[in-house]
Amino acid sequence: xxRKRLILVTAVVAMCSSNILGQATIxxxxxxxxxxxxxxxxxxxxxxxxxxxxxxxxxxxxxxxQQYVLPLQGCDPPSCExxxxxxxxxxxxxxxxxxxxxxxxxxxxxxxxxxxxVFVSLHxxxxxxxxxxxxxxxxxxxxxxxxxxxIDVPDAGAARRLTLRVYxxxxxxxxxxxxxxxxxxETVPLRDNVYSLSNWQHNYTTATWSVPVRPPSVDVQYxxxxxxxxxxxxxxxxxxxxxxxxxxxFVSVTDNTTQAVTLRMPQ
Length: 267
Hints:
Number of helices: 1
Radius of gyration: 20 Å
Strand content: 35-45%
Largest sheet: 5 strands, antiparallel
Oligomer: single chain
Shape: globular
Distance between the termini: 39 Å
Number of strands: 20
């Protein structure tokens, strides 16, 4: 079976780590963090549902430029050293699956000098009906320091459930956020809550590098209607309350009968 991989992309030509060729150890380049917001395998959900995610990556650079591919997990240095030669081939992208009770998501690290040439696909599958939903893959520049809005969210209730998922991009900053929920034309919030972002950190470690892969995050679930009587739609306002902690969020809307998922994102 092909081992899933977590990929760290660099643009270093004709260099290897000291564990391979005895040359000087390569310092970790300037990396961009990219959020994979849901990374799970065979997780049980509500109403008998079972969920998994899968990811792929394509690196559109000249094959002569080395890309360092770090295998997922279960190896001991120095055997974790990069595998080379992945340019212009679509490959499965591995991740540390989120365990039940852990905050959501994983971080992918990509060298900034070629990050515009790296393309990632992430999708969510549901075992009961085999449905497949494309998930966002979020770059650092898409995170907000100022308040932002998620609009046109249907209210929860017997027909559907909602989950608001909020993420930070820096694993070392775990602060607070404020979430206010409004009716479609209301100026007074129906809900006004403060939540803390947290993570149960895992590091991806090789003989050369060690990087944290869990973003700080929080999931807020809504099974009952937020408004009474139910509003035509809801607006979520999400704000970081912690300095230097930009955040990003989305709302998943899950049908309680079919388990079909739709997403509402800040756009």
